[in-house]
Please model this.
Amino acid sequence: TDTFNYATYHTLEEIYDFIDQLVAEHPQLVSKIQIGNTYEGRPIYVLKFSTGGNNRPAIWIDTGIHSREWVTQASGVWFAKKITEDYGQDPTVTSILDNLDVFLEIVTNPDGFAFTHSQNRMWRKTRSRTSGSFCIGVDPNRNWDAGFGKAGASSNPCSDTYHGKTANSEVEVKSIVDFVKNHGNIKAFISIHSYSQLLLYPYGYTSEPAPDQKELHQVAKSAVTALASLYGTKYQYGSIIDTIYQASGSTVDWTYNQGIKYSFTFELRDTGRYGFLLPASQIIPTAQETWLALLTIMEHTQTHPY
Amino acid sequence: SEDFVGHQVLRISAANEAQVQKVAELQDLEHLQLDFWRGPARPGSPIDVRVPFPSIQAVKIFLEAHGIGYEIMIEDVQTLLDEEQEQMSAFRARATS
Model:
């Protein structure tokens, strides 16, 4: 993985090869878990970074649930490599991994991602079929069982924000739900999207403030400050509904309602020029600055057990 | 592969709540085949929308008629996609050699 080019975009196959290579290089630190299969039958993989212990408290990070947001999957690859480089070298990373496990799902929507590489670069949703409709796919960030089907999602199967027939109808979502429930000890859940330079916390489906809003707001503030320290990239932060718009059935609303207090969702970089077509030259700077924010959240999770 | 020749991405600036609502109305006009990259949220928050070539005139006229400001964020989506593909192909060619 030292010769892997982190400054270009890669196909699903290349990313899966990278995952296997990373595991082979660091068998004591990294393992690969298959949490399910996609609608079209592709394996869904999660990397587990662990230094031992049994069912330690854990941090979850996922990238690329919206397939066209290519800088997120590319950043996920960079994060994976970074963790293996920094464990044993960087005191913060070492301390986190000595106490917590980290799960990283680099390609959260493999069918959609493959489709963006082969047929439609702008594809956002899953690739599941909806009976009675010619339109394909569900927005996997509207398919969670948190305010499912309320305002902020579409009931139209042709819409890019179609919530699906039922909560968890998408296997890509259900696989994570099952994993999180079975694990039972996940303390932070960070879901990464692009673009609009935001760090958000629950809620999206209701304007009721989350019970931990004050703390989440402080953590978000610290995280975006750390992020900006590298290249000056400015992020807004706040609850989903207050900062962008009402969105029901979203990932971190569900995780928060499951009791995962440190639930955050990122919208990574864009300068307002490229949107989802962020030039590959910006992958590494994006990943580098985001990593600083992730470290802030992970460190806070470690030092504030609950 | 889906062809995005002539598609533009417009960055729309809605100055007040009424303009935000007007842009939101565009979302319901399915025949325009608009793809909102950043949806209408609140005044001052940029709205980015990919507009297929056949809908460009209609969308621009709609915005101008309601006094809603916009600029062209991406002139031709396919051009950027081609550059992206060329870069990836060049990398693979180098890696293979």
